[in-house]
Amino acid sequence: MKKWFTFILAALVFVFLPLCSYNHGNSTPAESHLNQPETGHSHSSPSKLNKFVLAYYAVDYTGDMLSYDSLNSNYTWIDSIAIFNYLIDGRGNLIGQPYSQAVGLAKSRDIKSLMLVHNYVEGFSSGLAHQVLSVEENRSNLENNILSLIEEHGLDGVNIDLEGIPIQDREYYSIFLQELKEKFSPYGFLLSVSIPARTAEDIPNNWSGAYDYVRIGEIADLVAVMTYDEHWFGGAPGPIASLPWVERVLNYSVSQIPREKILLGIPAYGYDWSSDGECRSVSWNKAGELASENGGANWHDESSTPYITYYDKSGDKHETWFENESSLELKLDLANSSGVAGVAIWRLGFEDAGFWRTLTAKLS
Predict the structure, then answer these.
(1) Mapping DSSP to helix (H, G, I), strand (E, B) and coil, where does residue 195 land?
(2) Does residue 58 fall inside a structural domain?
């Protein structure tokens, strides 16, 4: 998910275990837009709640069952999972595994399963993205491999999560999505895309400039805007997703992309910054425990998010910013008032029962 998602995974000691290689041959606006009425056609199926709920499914280490267990417990409210499972190489081949157990559970619970295609190799690789997108043969090979894997494993579509794309490949990325959509068309497979959050057109930006919101909105069926990592593990402490920032991102997004295609990114994690210079990711449920152990959470009025400060046994000061039920409620209110299609949760297994109580109450 960005400058963002890279560091989330790194902080979690992400371990990617490629089991197979798949090669299919060689082949800020002055006025708010949030409350304008919906127009256009929605490509999503009827959702279980009043909004479509997509959840990212990940396996961060051998034996990690957090996503599976959460899916098994909370399937009633989930419409689709995007399984973080296929890494590209520069020629358009795919390395990964189908996670058949997750797909089987999803099918039995009437949940759409999407393979997630990424370029994460100890960080999102701009070089891989450039190599595969800018060469027509490589791009076509990737498209064909995606289509073949969807058919082989009985999936419903794909989530494209290519991040750190070089600015010069902006047009190639849009071409890739258009070509993939055309190949999906005879089969009705779902094309969803995860894109960095921004508050205005910013083509020179090295992180988000390659994503043409308008073109992506024209092509994709669903667009997950990753409204998190406003403050990230490589920077200064602060809110993961302050409400004013999320609102500005959403306001810009609905001015560029049909709102009935937009999924608002919901973080189920936080960061713990230490005065010794270290920073670690903290899941939603662990952040709540950490707050309870240190006198309870404080509320930051300006950002509408919780935080805590505490000292560890070594005397180092910690500042932890995270999300809780109160901050989640406000973000879900935005999803409701803006008329967007739904939400996209990073990630399954980080949350607790309170997260789902809040989500179902607000989106029912």
Answers:
(1) strand
(2) yes
Contact call for residues 216 and 195 (beta carbons, < 8 A): yes
Residue 289 domain-assigned (yes or no): no
With beta carbons less than 8 A apart as the criterion, state whether 103 and 59 touch.
no
Calpha distance 224→255 (Å, rounded): 15
CA pseudo-torsion sign 79, 230, 1, 8: negative
Percent of the chain at pLDDT above 70? Answer: 88
Tokens of 57: 């499914």
Q: Catalytic amino acids? A: 163
Spatial CA neighbour of 4 closest among 122, 115, 123, 118:
123
Reading the block at residue 245, the tokens are 């920032």
Domain enclosing residue 217, as ranges? 3-22+48-268+324-363
Is 204 part of a structural domain of the chain? yes
pLDDT-based confidence at residue 46 (cuts at 50, 70, 90): confident
**Is 291 within the bounds of a domain?**
no
Looking from the CA of 190 toward its CB, the CA atoms found within 13 Å total 26
CA distances, 282 to each of 146, 177, 270, 276, 322 (Å): 33, 34, 5, 17, 8
